[in-house]
Design brief:
By secondary structure, this protein is mainly β. It is built from two helices and 45 strands. The strands form eleven sheets. The protein has a seven-stranded parallel beta sheet with strand order 24-27-31-34-36-37-30. The longest helix is centred in the first third of the chain and has 27 residues. 37% of the residues are buried.
Length: 622
């Protein structure tokens, strides 16, 4: 009786397990998530696969990309070893893209000639199989055997077992260098040439190039024919659309002439011409089309590398600033160095940031709220702020009837709202073209001085008992006025190029002398961003070289790709641009060719101490 009861219990448990498995399967493979077709078909009677042919599997519904891995979707050789390649998932299909060969023997690609392979796609009952986006497991996996074409497999429209790139109608040509000519480092003379389409590996020989050398100071009649030491196809470069679009020519520092075998040492300022030849020796694409005859020039430069970016440059703006108005900027000096943009006349910033949230009156000896809820008092005529930021809709009145008043900012001043001088009738006397700051502050009823720049998008006005009030704006950085200022206002900059044009009607532009540095007791952190520089499309950024005039400047670097909607500008989306990273002299950074690159500088400053200087930052290609 007990045995019968045990048997019944076992049968019940087995039935429950079967039901559970069936239930699980019904959930995972419901609605028949399946393979609809494979292209190429990979059947026994199919033509052999070419060495760069992708394999695409189409499914009955969109695929979950997270379920696609080398374990669930693979191509393996006859020994079961995985084949190199890229898996690409788009919508309801997955594609395996093999790496095309680069060597002349066609034996270094993912797929070898005349070999057997197998496509394996995992599905039920494997839990790690391909799944749809709604979570359904592939109803049934597949295994497809295939063979690759032989090296001798050639046709009129393709001279090798490589599929021509007919994705568009672009020609097969050499892309020009963005630098005009190609720099060639004398101690490591290697040159990469980039083409619009993949190059047929069997056509890559030294005889495909005619190379001439013109020595420094030689006449055109003294041109020498030389030959590269080696030529090779390169893997996919950052700006190449396909693998094998770039070819590298390698020379030695001492080159050999063609015919006479005479040895000639390369020297900086030599010129080298490289001509693509025509005829049977020409470079070809996969379709057998010869590259047209083109000539490029190389200028031999000293060293083992080429600078692809350098700061500062003659084209740099004079001011490298940050979005933080309280942080002083950096300036490019007349000596082409970079240092913090601070001036002693801009004060010590003891009153903090002036950023009022409601209308405000500044009077000597009267308490006021600068905008952070604190109470400040200034008994003198000099209101020393870290920054001035008057937002739109807010009016700040300054009592100037008891004498001239100076508002200063260690960093920047931004007036989007209104700044009104309450002053007696006090016209500005004639101002010389070069003025001293102390004299200007005595002559103007209201002077606004900001070391790193002043921007007036709102208005500066005067409520005077008479008809005229003297107002002066003073900065070592930019002065930009897109709003309104009183007629006769003085706009004083150290460098006339930093006064944004057009100058408002009736204003008087002058130059002024300000003293670099901070007053005693002041402490502040300067921050600035260099302009973005676009790297050449044919050379990556690899190594940083930093020259500091003194310790004290922290240097960081940031890279960004091209904006897809505004070509030629960097894309600062945080998902695509890199975060700023600390830089050190000799550091390897590996930024792709064609990217944008900029620097962020930061320095902690104290009054009475010398300002640190950055002499230069160079980015080398190797």
């Amino acid at each position: 009786m007990n045995s019968i009861r045990i048997l019944r219990t076992g049968l019940t448990a087995t039935a429950a397990l079967v039901a559970l498995v069936a239930c699980r399967r019904s959930v995972d493979v419901e609605a028949g998530f399946s393979i609809t077709r494979v292209y190429p078909t990979l059947a026994a009677e199919s033509e052999p696969l070419l060495l760069n042919d992708p394999i695409t599997v189409y499914f009955s519904e969109p695929v979950d990309p997270l379920s696609v891995s080398p374990d669930s979707f693979a191509v393996v050789d006859a020994e079961g070893r995985p084949v190199r390649g890229r898996l690409r998932t788009e919508g309801s299909y997955v594609t395996f893209e093999p790496e095309a060969p680069l060597g002349r023997d066609l034996l270094d690609g993912s797929l070898l000639p005349s070999e057997s392979y197998r496509l394996a796609v995992a599905g039920y009952p494997r839990a790690d199989g391909i799944r749809s986006r709604r979570g359904a497991l592939l109803q049934e996996g597949t295994r497809r055997a295939f063979r690759t074409a032989s090296i001798a497999d050639a046709k009129p429209d393709r001279p090798a077992p490589l599929r021509p790139m007919f994705s568009d109608s672009r020609p097969f040509v050499l892309r020009p260098s963005e630098l005009g000519s190609y720099p060639l480092p004398v101690d490591d003379p290697r040159l990469a040439l980039h083409f619009t389409l993949p190059i047929l590996p069997t056509s890559v020989t030294t005889s495909a190039f005619e190379v001439t050398l013109l020595r420094r100071g030689a006449s055109p009649s003294e041109i020498e024919r030389i030959e590269p030491t080696a030529v090779r196809l390169l893997p996919k470069q950052p700006t190449d659309e396909f693998r094998g679009c770039s070819v590298e020519l390698e020379f030695r520092s001492i080159v050999k002439t063609v015919g006479s075998d005479r040895l000639i040492p390369l020297e900086p300022e030599d010129f080298m011409g490289i001509r693509l030849v025509a005829g049977p020796s020409a470079l070809q694409d996969y379709a057998g089309r010869a590259a047209p005859v083109q000539v490029v020039w190389c200028n031999v430069v000293a060293g083992v590398s080429v600078a692809v970016a350098e700061w500062p440059t003659a084209e740099d703006p004079q001011v490298w600033s940050d979005a933080d108005l309280a942080a002083p900027a950096f300036e490019v000096t007349s000596r082409r160095t970079v240092r913090p943009l601070v001036r002693k006349e801009a004060g010590n910033g003891a009153l903090g940031i002036l950023r009022p949230t409601r209308d405000l009156v500044l009077r000597r000896g009267q308490p006021f709220d600068p905008g952070d809820g604190s109470v400040r008092v200034e008994n003198g005529a000099h209101f020393q702020f870290a920054a001035i930021d008057i937002p739109a809709g807010v009016t700040v009145q300054v009592e100037c009837r008891d004498g001239p008043v100076l508002l200063s900012a260690v960093g920047h001043a931004s007036i989007a709202g209104s700044l009104v001088a309450l002053a007696a009738d006090r016209p500005m006397p004639p101002v010389p073209s070069l003025v001293e700051p102390s004299i200007l502050a005595e002559q103007a009823s209201l002077t606004v001085t900001a070391a790193s720049g002043i921007e007036v998008a709102g208005r500066i006005a005067a409520a005077a008992e008479g008809r005229s009030v003297a107002v002066a704006l003073v900065s070592a950085g930019w002065i930009r006025v897109t709003g309104s200022v009183p007629h006769g206002s003085v706009l004083a900059t150290e460098n006339g190029r930093l006064l944004a044009s057009p100058v408002p009607p009736g204003c008087v532009p002058v130059r002024i002398r300000l003293e670099p540095g901070l007053p005693e007791g002041a402490a502040v952190t300067a921050v600035g961003w260099s302009p973005f520089l676009a790297l050449p499309f044919d050379r990556p950024a690899t190594v940083l070289r930093i020259r500091n005039g003194a310790v004290g400047i922290r240097t960081l670097w940031q890279s960004a790709p091209h904006d897809p909607l505004r070509r030629g500008t960097p894309d600062l989306d945080p998902m695509r641009a890199s975060a700023p990273r600390d830089a050190a002299d000799g550091q390897r950074i590996d930024v792709p060719a064609g990217s944008f690159l900029r620097l962020r500088l930061q320095a902690d400053l104290r009054g009475g101490e010398p300002l640190p200087e950055l002499l230069s930052v160079r980015v080398l290609d190797r």
